[in-house]
Design brief:
Blueprint: H1 2-11, H2 17-33, H3 41-48, H4 52-59, E1 66-67, H5 73-80, H6 96-114, H7 119-124, H8 128-135, H9 142-149, E2 154-155, H10 161-172, H11 176-194
Antiparallel strand pairs: 1-2
Length: 202
Amino acid sequence: MQDAYIGNWTQQSHVSIEHLTSMRGLNNRFLDLAGNGLLSPGLARQLAGLSPAQRMSAANCPYALFDLRFEDDGYWRGRLQTVGAWRIADDLQVDAQIVDFTRLALFYTWHVASSAGLAAHLLLGLRGNTAAAFRGISVDALPALALAEAPNLSARWSGCRSYWTALINAAARPDAAALRRVQLSGLQLAAAAQLPSEPREV
């Protein structure tokens, strides 16, 4: 059933079934960790109420549910230009599972950014300059980068409680169409994040 669902996403995107399968797996791992301070306590409690199958359904999005400041082009360009100069604070206390996930997420990011096409942009929200910066580092730089970046791991659109509530609630119900609508709304959030911000009138 899940593979058929992924195939359905593939028919409507520029992303391969292999990338979508990997994305589902990463999202599921992230949701398993979300109770470690990565979601608000209320949302974490709601998420904890899902069965493993329901959590996997929630994870089956054609984009990342996690974030490492991927849409912050300036941050990553500066960060990746200083390969080899990263220092980890001695007092840095980060959960080992979060570091492990960050390492895996960054390896996947490097892999996707190194391949041609729009996958890095569509799946992770990477801008072109950020993807190019990832392509410019070697794979052996990723472990140190993961340790340094683990504190930045967060839920994507963490400020949009309505999205996360709708996703968790839809995954808890046996209504695939409702879940798909919520997952599609994430694509709208991703698109909106790419729009240039304009000053608002006061």
